[in-house]
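Researcher: Here's a chain I'd like modeled. Treat it as a single chain, no partners, no ligands.
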Amino acid sequence: MANDSGKRQWMYPLLRKGKYYRWRSLISYFYLAFFFSGPFLRISGQPLLLLNFAERHFVILGQVFWPEDIFLFVLGTLVFVVCVVLFTIAFGRLFCGWICPQTIFMEMVFRKIEEWVEGDANKRRKLDAGEWTRAKVVKKTLKHFLFIVVSFLIANTFLAYLIGSEGLLKIITEPVIQHWIGFASICVFTLVFYLVYSRVRELVCTLICPYGRLQSVLIDEHTLVVAYNDVRGEPRGKLLRNATADNLKGDCVDCGLCISVCPTGMDIRKGTQIECVNCTACIDVCDEVMDKIHKPRNLIGYYSENMIRLKEKPALTGRMVACAGVIITLISVLCYFIFSRKDMDMTVMRGAGMLYQEQPGGYISNVYNAEIINKTNQNRNIIIRPNDPSIKIKYIQAPGNIGKGTMGKAMFFVLIPASQINAVKTDVKLQLITNDKIIQTVTTSFVGPVN
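Model: Modeled as a single isolated chain. C-alpha cells:
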C-alpha cells in the first residue's frame, strides 16, 4: 500500500483472535504439520509428494509418474484452472485467506514471531519510528535471526519436495563439496523466502499474484465474499446518547478497526477490492465492536451483493451447487485416470509390410515390435509370454531389464501351429510379465494362411 507521496506504507495490522481466527489457526496448524512432514511420509514405499523436474520424476500420493504420463499433467492443470475459476465464481478469494501458503506463513508464522519479539502493532510502529537504541538492535536482530531460521527450514522442506528426502539428507550429512548445487539451492531459497516474508509481504497478494485481478472479473452479485453491509451500517458515525430521527446513524461507529486489522491496509467499507484476501480479520474485530455496543453481529460478514441489497437469506445457490458438482466431477475423473493407471504399459505392433512365414514343425510366424514403458521407481525384468501355451515366442531382441522410468523395446516372432489358423487374421493375446506377475495382457492380430 502506498501513501500520498507514492512511497510504500508499512503495514502494522492489529491482531484480534475471534471465531474465524481460531478456525484459520486450526487449518494453518494442520497445513504446517502436513507441509513439513510431507517429504518424509511414504505410501507403499513412495513419497507422498515429489516433483523432481531435473530427473523428470514425479510422485503424487505414492503414484509414480514419468514424462510418458504428460497427458495426466495436462489434465491436472486443466482441472486446477477450472476449479480455481469455478470456486472463485462461487466463493470469491476464499483460497487466499485460508489455504494460500503465502498467507499462512505470513500471518500464522512470521507475524506471530514479529509480535512475540517486538510487541503488538502500536509497539512495532513506535519501535520502527524510534531511534536505534540497544533494545531496538536486540529486538531487530532476534526477529530477523528467527526469520532466517524459519526461512531456512522452509527452504529445506521445499527442496525435499523437489529432490526427495533422501537427497536432502545427503546434502545435510555429507560434505558440502559433494553437493554444492544442492547447498547453493538451499541458500537461494532461504534468501528468497526471507525477503518475501520480511520485506515484500502483502505486496505478493496485492501486486505480484494475478489471482486478485482474476477474481475481479469472475465475481458477481451472487458470489459470497467478505463484505460490509452498508445498508445496515450507513450512515456511519459515533454513537449518540440522544439520537433522533434526524441524526440517526447506522450500526457502523466508524472506529476504523476493520482497517487496523487488515494485513493489506484496505477499507472493507469501500466494497470488494483486489487487496482483500478474505482473511476474515475484519469480521472478527467488527463482531467484537458490535458485542460492546449491543448490536447484532455480522455487520461485516460473508455476503453476496444480493444478500445485502435484496435481503436474500444466506444459502447455497443453484450456481454454487453446480460449481461444486463440476469441481467434484473433474477431480473424480482425474483421480480415476491416476489410480487406474498401470505401473507398466506395453504396445505391440505387427511388423509393417511383413507377411507370414512358414517355420519348421508346422508353425506359421509373424514378426512383432513391442515398446514397454516402466512407470515404476524400480528396474524391472520383463518377459513376454503368449496366453495360449500352444503358441510360441522366439526373440530377435528380448526386452530384458528395463530401468525405472524408461522405455524398452523388443522384437520377436510369434509362432502358431498352422492347424489352429482358421482365418486370415487371428487374435493373439500376449502377457507382460515381471516377477512372475502378469501386469498387462495385450491383444494383437496375427496374419496367416487359411487351412
